[in-house]
Amino acid sequence: MIHKKTYNAKELKTPNGNLLIEGPITGEALASYEFHQDLVAFRPPIQQQKALVGIADLPEGRIIVARDRHMIVGYVTFLYPDPLERWSEGKMENLIELGAIEVIPKFRGSGVGKNLLTVSMMDNAMEDYLIITTEYYWHWDLKGTGLNVWEYRKVMEKMMNAGGLVWFATDDPEISSHPANCLMARIGKRIENETIQQFDRLRFMNRFMY
């Protein structure tokens, strides 16, 4: 499979100033920017930036960022699922995962997340992919936002919908362990039925287990 990447960008006006939403960007470009000190959801900012630089240069890896001049204040990542997850078991070349999305507190509530996803899907090559995301409530910033699990889930689902991702049922044990957890996916326009059937088999792997 040829992994095409077409750069797109748009300006977003927010109450805290204008941001440039752009990507997919190269590892070199990503390394040249500063990473905001509040991007700490997954690991310390310097380590996270290093990890994203690595993802950006993978054939299927895509990083879209929200940038305040030279400072990255938000990002979303797309790459193949973790080899330890069931979603990688089918070894599907056209299945990629929205692995992480993060926006610093200062710019939350300004539509940054939605616009990161909108710009991501502006690339026509995304129609060749089945894109998934797995959402777990223990990754959510409930303390920082003051939202409860269900309020956060609603906000998160609305944001994912902006990128065309919708809820899908699954019997994955980790997702099934809490009703707020969920699997969401976007099936590209050029995805064939065979791929959808393969995805369905990955979604329900325990149906014959008693």
TrEMBL record:
One of its GO terms (molecular function) is acetoin dehydrogenase (NAD+) activity. SUPFAM superfamilies: Acyl-CoA N-acyltransferases (Nat). Coiled coil: none annotated. It comes from the Bacteria. GO terms for biological process: acetoin catabolic process. InterPro entries: AcuA, Acyl_CoA_acyltransferase, GNAT_dom. Pfam families: Acetyltransf_1. Residues 48-118 form the N-acetyltransferase domain. This is GNAT family N-acetyltransferase.
